Each structure stands twice: as C-alpha cells, then as structure tokens.
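To: structure desk
From: M.T.
Subject: fold request, one chain
Message: Could you run this one when you get a chance? Sequence is below, nothing fancy, just the single chain.
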Amino acid sequence: MRKRGFTVNILDNKAQAFQRLKELLPAGAEVMTASSTTLYQIGFMDYYLGGKNPWHCLGPEVYNEKNPETQGMLRRKADTAEYFLGSVNALAETGELVACDASGSRVSAYPFAAKKVILVVGIQKITPNLQKAMQRVREYVFFLEDERAKKAYGVGTRLGKWAIIENEMQKDRITILLVKEPLGF
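Reply: Done. Structure tokens follow.
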C-alpha cells in the first residue's frame, strides 16, 4: 500500500483507531464523513455528531437540511472537504482500495474531491487481490449493507457506484488506519 502512495497506520484495536483519527484532524479543520459502520463502531460518529469536538463538521449541516435540492448541493460541496473520513469494503493484499455504494455519496470524495481522505479499515476486509475484493463486495458486503439500509431507510440498497483506487499521486492525501480487529462489513 505504501508503494501505491498511501500512508498506512497499523493499529491494534478500535480504541487506538479512534484516538489516532482524532490526532490526525487539526482543530478547526473542515470534516465530512461517509456513511460508515466502521466509524460508528470505533465511537467516532457519536463524538463527531455530538458537537463537542474542535472541528467544523459538515455532516450535521447536510443531514439537517430538509430541502432536497439544497441538501444535494451541500452533499456535493461536502465531497470537497478538507478531511473526508470513511472506510472501504475491501482492501486487496496487492494494495488496491475498493469501495461501493448505491448513490455514490460515500465514495465520490475518495478518488479526487476531498483534500485529504482517512479510511479506517478492519482487518477482515483484506482479500488476496482485486478480483477477490470485488467478489467480497458482491457476495458478502452487499447483503449486510442491504439489511442495514432497510432498517435505516426503509429500502434496500444496490451496487451503484464503485471506487477502485490503485495509486495516490499526492503525498499524504490518503491515510489508511488498518485495525487488527474486525470492523464494519
């Protein structure tokens, strides 16, 4: 992964991931998050949404907007945040990052839009290669996300937009916090 231009931090557990994530975000930074079970599991989302943190959090502005047209505009603007946080669905041993979602709102910032991307990844998401990573999304992750979406939104999901990142040209733009325990799905 480092040869592909990614900064990698290997951490033992979710508590270390939460702490490292807070260390990487400077006070006053503009921060947006993707929808991420992993970020909830490490405790970050409660801290982020709780309002008692040192950042300019774009998420609440987006989530609280009731006008669909205005909310869509805010979502697109949030993709260009100074820091965009999330996870991936799979990480190939060969170094590729694979993320997929129905609308693209989760993955759209990863390839280019956000100034910096920080991805928290549980160890169970590692696959031998890109083909197996995509297979993991189709045959495993999809069904768990579909179940989650039905509970959260009342409708299921679909495989809509994929982001496969093989290399990052900008130094220190994408940081991966690889956690040695299962997180997300």
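Reply (cont.): Strands lie at 7-11, 30-33, 56-57, 83-86, 90-92, 97-101, 116-122, 126-127, 161-165, 174-179. Let me know if you need anything else for the meeting.
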